[in-house]
């Protein structure tokens, strides 16, 4: 069954059986994470047909799968992950997108699309070049 | 008198870690922070946005939490840090 996939670096959306290994837009490898059809529609500014509730387990499964071929993993600190999932749930419920709970939207859609989890944290100063790097919120940490 | 603001978010783990340190700083040094939650209070969110030109540059170009802001000097820092670092910044 075809699914929707989003490049966490540039927000490129792909619809297919599996994610592209190489993002055709930003050329980053292993960058796609599975997303819901509702999110894909929102990211492409197409009105969703019926609101879909945020499925925490499905999201966690999707990001865990997404991290497998990468140099980072989901933070093993489950308490922190739970807190962040609470925030993602609240933000998806209020704004229709999983905005990072540790950053504030500006109300500029293009700019705010960079805050949708998983975001392009490879450029965050908390991750880039940091041995025990993590994304700003700490959902993803570099593998030790 | 210096006036400090802590912009924080309810579901931000960094904020949860920093909150006890802020409380300690207030208790030990008499420094008072106005604590403003920004994801569940639109008024606070708008206030933080209104300071974007000051708050974003030292915070990776974004509005991040927690952000500590000295409204008198217009200086800001953000993220988790040791107690002494926050104290030094506040007393600078």
Please, could you describe this protein's structure?
The complex is a heterodimer of chains A (144) and B (92). Helix content of chain A is 28%, strand content 13%. Chain A has 144 residues and is of the alpha+beta class. Chain A has one domain. Chain A has a 3-stranded antiparallel β-sheet. Chain B is α+β, with helices and mostly antiparallel strands. Chain B has one domain: Glutaredoxin. Chain B has 4 helices and 4 strands; from the N terminus they run E-H-E-H-H-E-E-H. A 4-stranded mixed β-sheet of chain B has the order 2-1-3-4. The model of chain B has no long low-confidence stretch (mean pLDDT 96). The interface between A and B is medium-sized, with 21 and 22 residues.
List keywords for this structure.
heterodimer, A: 144 residues, alpha+beta, 3-stranded antiparallel sheet, two-stranded antiparallel sheet, 4 helices, globular, B: 92 residues, Glutaredoxin, 4-stranded mixed sheet, 20% strand
Total tally of structural domains of chain A: 1
What is the CATH T-level topology of chain B? Glutaredoxin
What is the spatial order of strands in the main beta sheet of chain B? 2-1-3-4
Average pLDDT taken over every residue of chain A: 92
Please give the domain count of chain B. Answer: 1
* Counted beta strands of chain A: 5
Shape of chain B: globular
The sequence of SSEs of chain A as H and E is EEEHHEHHE
Main sheet properties of chain B? 4 strands, mixed
The quaternary state of the protein chains shown equals heterodimer
State the helix count of chain B. Answer: 4
Q: Whole-number average pLDDT of chain B?
A: 96
Would you state the CATH class of chain B? Alpha Beta
- Strand arrangement within the widest β-sheet of chain A reads 2-1-3
Q: Quote the beta fraction of chain A.
A: 5-15%
Class from helix and strand fractions of chain B: alpha+beta
């Amino acid at each position: 069954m075809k699914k929707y996939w989003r490049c966490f670096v540039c927000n490129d959306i792909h619809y297919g059986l599996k994610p592209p290994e190489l993002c055709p837009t930003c050329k980053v490898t292993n960058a796609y994470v599975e997303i819901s059809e509702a999110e894909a529609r929102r990211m492409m500014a197409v009105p969703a047909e019926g609101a879909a509730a945020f499925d925490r387990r499905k999201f966690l499964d999707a990001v865990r799968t997404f991290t497998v071929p990468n140099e980072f993993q989901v933070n093993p600190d489950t308490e922190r992950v739970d807190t962040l999932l609470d925030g993602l749930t609240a933000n998806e419920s209020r704004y229709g997108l999983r905005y990072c709970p540790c950053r504030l939207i500006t109300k500029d859609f293009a700019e705010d699309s960079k805050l949708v989890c998983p975001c392009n944290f490879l450029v965050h100063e908390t991750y880039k070049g940091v041995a025990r790097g993590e994304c700003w919120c700490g959902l993803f940490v570099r593998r030790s | 008198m210096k006036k400090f603001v802590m912009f924080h978010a309810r579901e931000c783990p960094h904020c949860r870690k920093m909150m006890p340190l802020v409380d300690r700083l207030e208790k030990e040094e008499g420094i008072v922070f106005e604590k403003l939650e920004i994801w569940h209070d639109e008024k606070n969110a708008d206030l933080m946005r209104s300071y974007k030109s000051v708050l974003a540059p030292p915070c990776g170009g974004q509005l991040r939490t927690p952000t500590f802001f000295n409204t008198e000097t217009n200086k800001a820092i953000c993220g988790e840090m040791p107690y002494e670092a926050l104290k030094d910044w506040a007393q600078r």
